[in-house]
Amino acid sequence: MISARGLRKSFGDFEAVKGIDVEVRRGEAFGFLGPNGAGKSSTMRMIAAVSPVSGGELRILGLDPATDGQAIRGRLGVCPQEDTLDTELNVRDNLFIYGRYFGLSKAEVNERADELLEFVQLTEKAKAKVDDLSGGMKRRLTIARSLINRPDLLLLDEPTTGLDPQARHVLWDRLFRLKQAGVTLVITTHYMDEAEQLCDRLVVMDKGLIVAEGSPADLIREHSTREVAELRFGVGEHEALAGKIEDLGDRVEVLPDRLLVYTDDGERVLSQVHERGLQPVATLVRRSTLEDVFLRLTGRTLVD
Length: 304
Prior knowledge:
304 residues; single chain; nucleotide-binding; cell membrane; translocase; alpha/beta; Rossmann fold; 37% helix; six-stranded mixed sheet; ABC_transporter-like_ATP-bd; 11 helices; Alpha-Beta Plaits; ATP hydrolysis activity
């Protein structure tokens, strides 16, 4: 579905994407995980055939975006990071007008609009103004609009940014159903739980480069431990205390507000910390996540 070799994107002297290789297979959910500024959105704009490639080779659906941009865009669905809904139209007309852009007949686009409103659970809001929708409803409508042309490939750029947890989970359910129906998804996100929930495979990007690739489970297994013990001490104490516990796990990461001890037995680490006379203000034992993978590979957290 997507094949990139040495893909680059420059803006003047600034190189946002620095020569990456990517393969996306039919029917999978593929993710680009990384912080803001990692190059995810620049990559997505090239894949969407709306931003020219600065270097390397890119094929979308077997086509070259430099010469077949219109044909590619006709087979894509795009859910941009910002909602671009038409506030002058009601919910249903946003779908109807957009479907007509693709040359669908009135009968076909009417049928498709009804199907999609039901799919994103907005049938009762069909005549409502866009401004009257919640943030979660607007995102679902944007996704419905991106599906109006029955795309072969659906691009989702930070699909749940700004949504509350309940709205995020509703959206995850809709995306999971699309994947089950055979739609190929390409998702950018800086939420590690979102990447773990939705993606079959992903790449971790940082500063325009791919620093790791694989399934979420494989990346965690390869680059982290089974568990992490989080220790919070007083403000400004973490750097000094790290040396006193560095032998208790595979490694210790010092963050401004806590220490992370990577281990296969978090409870044992907590016991040993207390045996040494140290008294954390708060403790937590959790499983490793993609956030820990990113921290291990870059020395930074995803929200830096």
